[in-house]
Specification:
Elements lengths: L1 H4 L11 H21 L2 E10 L4 E12 L2 E3 L1 H10 L3 H22 L8 E5 L2 H5 L3 H11 L7 E5 L9 H13 L2 E7 L8 H4 L4 E4 L1 H4 L10 H12 L3 E5 L4 H9 L4 E3 L9 H13 L2
Parallel strand pairs: 2-4, 4-5, 5-6, 6-7, 7-8, 8-9
Antiparallel strand pairs: 1-2, 1-9, 2-3
Helix pairs in contact: 4-6
The protein binds ligand C2E and magnesium ion (3 copies).
Length: about 280
């Protein structure tokens, strides 16, 4: 049974079709139950500015299925396939707002802290109740919209998706911030960058990995940063793992960073401790 087999139960990449189907069904079942039982938790990865202060954080969802961690790429994809991403995404947004309110009341956020970034899957964004949920949560947790940054990918507004575009417009008017996640990995033309009220480009980790020890230039990174600046957008690099990568990015006018070099994603308590340590030893 899937529960006792743990991670090996989701051998989604085996050649055996029957096994694959069974594994997938097990995953869907477990996921469905996990949503009922709220068996998920959130971790928070700090984002830092060029002065080494915390500028924000990204919320990342975790699931230990009976003690066995399931990779977010796996369970988020499964949740999208079954539309379970809608209740799961709603829960993630609510918990994110709850944590944010709590941190503000506790005084654990430094003055430099500007936004909590939440990943929004295209299906969740398409939900007709998405905007009312956002409004409800802002009200319930007394948050100004500026505190919330929604991380979307190109898939969210691909094609002739006027509905998504209008939704971005309206939420942006309200004061919600939008970051374009995994930037540089999509396939669409860049014209949307001029049309949509985005605030931030998030350079995909795959490009950051290309900054190696020989200090060879990485033209794509330099171009993305310049493109962002030319459009008046903030630019953040994700997956910064070495000091050298950070120095390279800084030298090319990227002023915001997220990655293991600074911190792995942390649970609530460890996150507040990290913020306190940052402030005490600048
Ligand atoms: P993403 O939004 O691009 O998130 C960044 C991923 O990079 C996270 O993986 C994070 O833990 C990882 N990461 C951060 N810094 C480093 C680093 O320095 N080195 C390396 N190697 N990795 C780093 P994670 O948590 O496994 O999430 C993977 C993807 O799953 C996310 O990509 C996002 O697409 C999705 N995801 C995670 N949480 C949520 C969520 O709450 N909602 C939705 N819709 N999607 C989520
Ligand atoms: Mg993200
Ligand atoms: Mg990303
Ligand atoms: Mg990614």
């Amino acid at each position: 049974h899937a529960k006792s087999l743990g991670r090996s139960a989701y051998s989604l990449y085996t050649d055996n079709m029957q096994q694959q189907t069974q594994d997938k069904l097990n995953l869907f079942n477990d996921l469905h139950q996990a949503i009922e039982e709220e068996a998920f938790y959130l971790v928070f990865q700090p984002q830092l500015n060029s002065r080494g202060e915390a500028s924000g954080a990204e919320v990342l969802c975790r699931w230990n299925n009976n003690g066995v961690p399931v990779a977010p790429d796996v369970f988020i994809a499964a949740a999208e396939e079954t539309n379970l991403i809608i209740p799961l995404g709603r829960w993630i947004l609510r918990q994110s707002c709850r944590h944010l309110q709590h941190w503000r009341q506790q005084g654990c956020l430094p003055a430099s802290f500007r936004q909590l970034a939440v990943n929004i899957s295209p299906i969740q964004f398409r939900d007709p109740q998405f905007e009312s949920l956002i409004n409800e949560l802002l009200e319930e947790y007394s948050l100004e919209p500026q505190w919330l940054e929604l991380e979307i990918t190109e898939n969210t507004f691909l094609g002739n998706n006027d509905e998504a575009r209008n939704k971005i417009e309206r939420l942006s008017q309200l004061g919600i911030r939008f970051a374009l996640d995994d930037f540089g990995t999509g396939y669409s033309s860049l014209s949307y960058l001029q049309q949509l009220p985005l605030h931030k480009l998030k350079i995909d980790r795959s490009f950051i990995t290309d900054i190696d020890k020989t200090d060879q230039p990485v033209p794509i990174i330099e171009s993305i940063i310049q493109l962002g600046h030319n459009l008046g957008l903030d630019v953040i690099a994700e997956g910064v793992e070495t000091e050298q990568q950070r120095d390279y990015l800084l030298a090319h006018q990227c002023y915001e960073f997220q990655g293991y070099w600074f911190s792995k994603p942390l649970n609530d308590e460890a996150f507040c401790r990290y913020l306190a340590e940052l402030q005490s030893c600048p």
